[in-house]
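Researcher: Here's the sequence for the chain we discussed earlier.
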Amino acid sequence: MSVKAFKLVSAVEREMLMGDKNYINIECIECCGKNLYIGTNDCFIYHFLLDEKVSTAGKITFAATKQLHKYLGLKKPVSELKAASALTRLLVLCDNTITLVNMINLEPVPTGARIKGAVTFTLNENPVSGDPFCVEVCIISVKRRTIQMFMVFEDRVQIVKEVFTPEQPCAVAVDGYYLCLALTTQYIILNYNTGVSQDLFPYCSDEKRPIVKRIGRQEFLLAGPGGLGMFATVDGISQRAPVHWSENVIGAALCFPYVVALDDEFITVHSMLDQQQKQTLPFKEGHILQDFEGKVIVATNKGVYILVPLPLEKQIQDLLASHRVEEALVLAKGARRNIPKEKFQV
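Model: Thanks. This is the structure I predict for it:
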């Protein structure tokens, strides 16, 4: 039984990005407030402003206005982008090097500060330094079986810690001192401060792309064996039942109370409250699915789309209208913190 939880709305059409240049592909995206950044395979960064418009009928559309684009001067794809809005910096990974650029004009910082030797990187959303003018960056290093932690300031970077892992890491998420790592054959939790590690469950990274995602304080979402979306805390336990994905999930995102997953053909929506699949949206050639401050964005090689959640009250009304009272109650109770008090009482 389906629930209409999300609508798929186009945000950036291919013409805006590439005109008639068919060889241009979207490699990565980052969204921070109204700022949308796109990294491409021909070494460009594009900056758009996203404006959300609501019609009188309540229909939501997005208008993207191109601000500027910048060539990074290499013949390599821009593989990752992360915004550090407190520093007005964009961290750009290209050719194994993380460069700091200004979020507004996309110019590199004058000091030339950069982090070399990064395969992939992530930011610590639950930082341990307590310094508001610094972001903590964790990289998987080009050195074998090595993770490095950096503090990144407005115009300089500083290495804090280098940690060695039992196998080659291929994906990482961070929460405080805890690293959740996908290694070659298993997922582990590693405290980089104490060096204590804990095995979670086996996984073969040669067969499938691992997914490691921080979804809240001390909790991660992982692509487990048998097409399961597994939840794990930093203590190595699961406080929620897994969700059943397809075998070939490419990306996952969280938009409470839903877990959204992307595979070759569909976007699927599961409830974290009862683990049931609630919605399936056909979506071909998708290769990116990420959530940014509650905004869920999907992209193909050529276009960017936003999954707009329908108001929870509307979803509850729809469930009641189709006599699914139990599901409506589960959703109302589970999503209580996201519904205004007077509407919840009703």
